[in-house]
């Protein structure tokens, strides 16, 4: 197949290869330096404002630890869904509720495992960044191993760069697959990415995050898991730059809603040098997700205040009602540990709150019942 000629502004070129030419991107930094349009600057400012609002409100709520965990799990679920996994936020909460009771050794479905792996990898990465560790190729490879633990496909190379070519099917009918660079070029390209990250980039952190994400996905350094790892790196990079106090934004939800455009915008950068359109898409994703996180946190804070007013007393039922945001998914016997009460009291609390409509049973079973806080889940999902 003839090699497609690309304009000079494209940050790479196609190289003849059978059956389809592969794309050879230029290493970072992007040359010549990007000219950021006024429209993009304005979008950066608005996205930065929305992210700042999220950090501001999140630090004022009494359930920030639960919010932190919940948003990581939402991000994990959305990132897994982009890759085709059939998993819901409730599935992840249910797993973590059962795990302390010794059920962790049970077989976990692959789709759920992908989300759990993402949660573990993101949490690990944030801990490393929080301890002052830089984003290195070694860390990236470790995160890849965590993402693909027990979900690898035959032939996948785990924790190291791929040793074979890959072909990415196009979302457009009739368009040839996108073929990332040859394995021999990956190490050098990824070293340029590592250097770019460690030098702090060249632009506003939100713009640099978009460049880093595009470059990672275009190099496609691993045999599988590139999408999940690339989206995870967005959060780690912004956190490492001090731009995110905590991961209260989750870009995967936006990318999942606009999956075809997500892929096409990156390919347009490679083939046309369409940076401005990609930056607009990426920044709008961060801006809209930050706005969503702010609204979600505000609604949760209002819900907490409503529970505190509706259940002001000192009975066990009232005390647990005020803690529903802390324990949004539970089993009756969990309350024995949470509240240091008897089994009989735990079941009474459940009956009271179910009668009030605050919780509902989700398994449909007669034994081993599990409950979720209805309004909390409505907001989180």
TrEMBL record:
What domain of life? Answer: Archaea
A Pfam family of this chain: Fic
Please give the SUPFAM superfamilies that the UniProt record associates with this protein.
Answer: Fic-like, Winged helix' DNA-binding domain
- Fido domain residues: 135-284
InterPro entries noted in UniProt? Fic/DOC_N (IPR025758), Fido (IPR003812), Fido-like_dom_sf (IPR036597), Fido_containing (IPR040198), SoFic-like (IPR026287), WH-like_DNA-bd_sf (IPR036388), WH_DNA-bd_sf (IPR036390)
Q: Which PANTHER family match?
A: FIDO DOMAIN-CONTAINING PROTEIN, FIDO DOMAIN-CONTAINING PROTEIN DDB_G0283145
The molecule here is called Fic family protein
Instruction: Tell me what organism the protein belongs to.
Output: Natronocalculus amylovorans
